[in-house]
Design brief:
Layout (H helix, E strand, L loop, with lengths): L1 H19 L4 H13 L4 H10 L5 H4 L2 H4 L34 H13 L5 H18 L17 E4 L2 E4 H13 L3 H6 L6 H8 L3 H17 L6 E2 L1 H30 L1
Parallel strand pairs: 1-3
Antiparallel strand pairs: 1-2
Length: 259
């Protein structure tokens, strides 16, 4: 009985550690998915609705995190991030032989554009793509290898133990206690020209932009800092902006594939 209890406890701890390094958390990913869906062309939206069998982008946006609990999907774990030094860039940084966020996104796009791909596989890689483009806009998913994207930088968040990665993943979002629909509904009102400016470029351009933001995030704290309202006041608008950028850019990619 005691051994069973210990086994269960270990399983819970491992499960929690897996999900503690997730990205944006469910609320952030769903907000990005919802914003993307609102910016799809009619043609792309019809095709995606059919492929996803009625499920929306917000609903499937957390799928890539959910499968982390299944060892059968282990090969996809490295797709959630890119590690590079702060003074480096993707092109010249040593690549993970198991893949990374960029190779994962590119593979998803390739599969979805292949007319010979089955609907089952397209459905899987579409769900992955929705999530990964969200990941691309969380600055610490394009962070340093030595601190695991800020996971080992210990801080306090409103008196509770946390780390820099977790603060950006979910702590700030959770503190505001907004649903993903509230976040999407309150996204900045942009003109067509402003949306096009955000959507300009490609995946590598967006990686570079997010990596530049990561530099600022790393410089915003030091280990042991006690973060409260002042930090949220300064950076929660950045979180909201990143969620919106992720949604608009996801819409661009999907419109190019399905539109």
């Amino acid at each position: 009985m005691k051994l069973n209890f210990i086994a269960i406890l270990i399983f819970v701890m491992v499960s929690q550690s897996v999900f503690s390094i997730s990205d944006w958390g469910p609320t952030g990913h769903r907000a990005t998915g919802e914003i993307a869906e609102r910016n799809l062309t009619r043609r792309a939206k019809r095709k995606i609705e059919k492929l996803l069998q009625g499920e929306g982008l917000a609903f499937v946006s957390t799928y890539a995190d959910e499968i982390k609990s299944d060892r059968n999907y282990r090969e996809f774990f490295p797709w959630h991030y890119v590690n590079m030094p702060l003074d480096g860039n993707y092109e010249t940084t040593e690549k993970n032989p198991k893949g990374d966020l960029v190779t994962g996104i590119n593979h998803c796009i390739k599969v979805l554009k292949d007319e010979n791909t089955s609907d089952k596989d397209k459905r899987f890689y579409l769900k992955m793509l929705v999530h990964l483009i969200g990941d691309l806009h969380q600055p610490l998913h394009i962070g340093r290898k030595e601190d695991k994207g800020g996971n080992t930088i210990q801080v306090q968040w409103h008196g509770r133990g946390s780390n820099l990665h977790r603060v950006w993943d979910g702590d700030m979002l959770n503190e505001w206690d907004m649903s993903y629909m509230e976040l999407a509904n309150n996204a900045k009102d942009l003109t067509k020209e402003e949306k096009k400016a955000i959507q300009k470029g490609n995946v590598l351009d967006w990686v570079k932009e997010t990596h530049n933001l990561a530099k600022e995030v790393y410089g915003s704290v030091k280990s042991g800092d006690k973060l409260r309202y002042r930090y949220s006041y300064k950076y929660f608008p950045v979180v909201r902006e990143q969620l919106q950028k992720g949604g608009l850019r996801l819409a661009k990619v999907l419109n190019e594939i399905f539109g």
